């Protein structure tokens, strides 16, 4: 239904940016609901991108470990594991995610 609304309201050049998480790919057992919701966002983004591309609407999802209050509550071992996989070896700042979205 949301895709139908976008299709009828937006013209070429519109952009939809959703927020996802690495948890969509390999969520720990302790956050199943969060992981499933983020996986759903990724599938929705891919489906919307395919459906709306012909109308000139781009759909993207942005993800990344971000330094937020939610991230502060994560297990230290999980943080260390995530940081080891990051090229910059630190979480993103919220303004950096905002800049990526602005670019898209």
From TrEMBL:
Q: Which GO terms describe its molecular function?
A: oxidoreductase activity
The protein, known as = Uncharacterized protein
Keyword DNA-binding carried by entry: no
- State the family it belongs to: Belongs to the short-chain dehydrogenases/reductases (SDR) family.
Q: Which domain of life is it from?
A: Eukaryota
A Pfam family found in this protein is adh_short_C2
Its taxonomic path starts at: Eukaryota, Metazoa, Ecdysozoa, Arthropoda, Chelicerata
Question: Which keywords does the record carry?
Answer: Oxidoreductase
**Stored InterPro entries:** NAD(P)-bd_dom_sf, Sc_DH/Rdtase_CS, SDR_fam
